[in-house]
Amino acid sequence: MREKKEKSRHLEGMGERERLFDLLIHDLREPLAIVSTSTSSLLKKGDQAGSLAEDQKRGLERIQRNVQKAQTLLQEMIEIFHSEEGLFQKGFFSVEKTVRASVLDVLEVAIPTAAELLCREEKYEGFCDLLKPHGIFIEISGRYGQTPFCHDQKKVQQILRNLMSNALKYRRSRMNVSISGEGDLFVSVEDDGRGIPTRDHESIFGRFVQLKGTEHEIREGLGLGLAGVKAIVEAMGGEITLTSREGSGSCFKVRIPPLPS
């Protein structure tokens, strides 16, 4: 009852756009959760009873993967919206654990077999060593290698996830992730891909933008990733920059100031 009253007061103070978005989130979350739970249950029962044919199992796994993608996209839209409204869930969190979680999120889609192995590795050094054969190199230095960072962990994780997902998609063989900082948090994600022409450096941050006519053409997704990253970073009072030219890879750098503790 208390939650309903609080939600009612929240909706009364919102504009038409905010109310519509809030209802949209509610209407999408519930059916996606039902589909996800039902699919997982069918897969589990099939494994136990051995009643699923191989094509049935593959079909259910495909449904499960796509539901998870839809849930991730919905959550990212929520985080972007909250950022634009200046809403942050303040807290202290481990940068190392957040980086690890972001890497696993990306690899669940890009290299599922690697993600399964990495989930079982508890030590950070061992985690990084397991990534090296896949051309993924991570370095965390400075204050936040040991000291928790104060901000919204979900939004920082979304920034990392999107930047790493892009780097893995367009690299030739290597992705470097570097985290540093003594006051502000600095994130650098670099790939050795074909690079981005200077003329496209601004447009690549636009929503629903897909670069065309080049070998690094964006083919997947809605084009919300980098636009969302830029919106969140700027709402945090930080900045994002791109260093790239055609034929020499790309490096995205992000600066995030901590919230006052």
Description:
This protein is α+β, with helices and mostly antiparallel strands and 261 residues long. The chain has two domains: 2-84; 91-256, Histidine kinase-like ATPase, C-terminal domain (Heat Shock Protein 90). It is built from eight helices and seven strands, in the order H-H-H-E-H-H-H-E-E-H-E-E-H-E-E. The protein has helices spanning 2-12, 16-49, 54-84, 95-110, 112-119, 124-131, 153-170, 225-235; strands at 91-93, 136-140, 149-151, 175-180, 185-191, 239-244, 250-256. Strand 6 and strand 7 form a beta hairpin. Helix 2 (16-49) packs antiparallel against helix 3 (54-84) and helix 4 packs across helix 7. Mean pLDDT is 80; it is low at 1-14 and 213-223.
Question: How would you concisely characterize the structure shown here?
Answer:
The protein is built from 8 helices and 7 strands, in the order αααβαααββαββαββ.
Task: Give the SSE map.
Elements: H1 2-12, H2 16-49, H3 54-84, E1 91-93, H4 95-110, H5 112-119, H6 124-131, E2 136-140, E3 149-151, H7 153-170, E4 175-180, E5 185-191, H8 225-235, E6 239-244, E7 250-256
Parallel strand pairs: 2-4
Antiparallel strand pairs: 1-3, 4-5, 5-7, 6-7
